[in-house]
Design a protein that fits this description.
The protein has 224 residues and is of the alpha+beta class. The protein has a single domain, classed as Phosphatase 2c, domain 1, CATH 3.60.40.10. It has helices at residues 54-73, 77-90, 167-170, 176-191, 198-206; strands at 6-10, 15-20, 30-36, 41-49, 97-105, 110-116, 122-124, 129-131, 152-155, 161-165, 216-222. It has a six-stranded antiparallel beta sheet with strand order 1-2-11-10-7-8. A hairpin with a 4-residue loop joins strand 1 and strand 2.
Length: 224
């Protein structure tokens, strides 16, 4: 199967992005964005506005604008999510957003991130792999007027492959457990093939038997 979608590759930073709206839509509620803040610091964000269609795409654009503006002024993932939450809550009942905001320090090789109800990042290296889950899951954005997420800091292996994604990837077959296993398998395959467009290669493998029913997006970061 040929996977359609919007690829974006930043070869100097070993980052690739792929996204695909649901059905025949031109845009959807998912986003993946990278912002270079300095020679050492990159901001990464992935998110998902619930629902489909033009209205959801417009909400996604508005939420993302606020996330990107906040990233420029505060290098605190939880604080950025709080800004985005204030806007999502102001939109009224029914606007629910999951998101991750992360800051990758390339000099220290650390990742500082906060998660607002979003599927956990997948981290691989040569000898291990794990979903970066925590016992206490912070709530999605838009539910309460105030939002306070936890910040987590991890040291990235020198050969790390970090995968950020939306639930359209792991729930494409309506089976989240199987979807996570499929993602892990696809990521491990591209780990050993650095010449590939990582995000597109993972998407091609995930959707090899057919497209899903939801917006989908992937961002892949290599630390080497």
């Amino acid at each position: 199967m040929k996977v359609q979608g919007a690829p974006q590759t930043l070869p100097d930073e070993h980052i690739s992005i792929w996204s695909l709206p649901a059905g025949d839509a031109q845009s959807g509620g998912d986003w993946c964005e990278v912002v270079e803040l300095s020679e050492d610091l990159l901001a990464l964000t992935v998110g998902d506005v619930s629902g489909h269609g033009i209205a959801v795409a417009a909400t996604r654009a508005s939420v993302l604008v606020r996330v990107l503006r906040a990233i420029q002024h505060m290098h605190d993932p939880a604080a950025v999510l709080a800004v985005a939450n204030a806007f999502a809550f102001s939109c009224g009942e029914g606007v629910i957003v999951t998101a991750i905001v992360a800051f990758w320090n390339r000099r220290l090789q650390t990742l500082t991130f906060a998660n607002a109800g979003h599927p956990p990042p997948l981290l691989l290296s040569g000898d291990c792999q794990a979903f970066l889950e925590h016992l206490t899951a912070d709530l999605p954005l838009g539910i309460y007027a105030q939002h306070s997420a936890a910040n987590y800091v991890i040291a990235l292996p020198s050969d790390a492959l970090l995968v950020l994604y939306t639930d359209g990837i792991t729930e494409h077959n309506r089976d989240e457990v199987r979807g996570e296993a499929d993602l892990s398998e696809a990521a491990r395959l591209v780990f050993d093939q650095p010449e590939l467009d990582d995000a597109r290669a993972i998407a091609r493998d995930i959707f090899r038997t057919g497209s899903g029913h939801d917006d989908a997006a992937i961002m892949v970061v290599r630390t080497t």
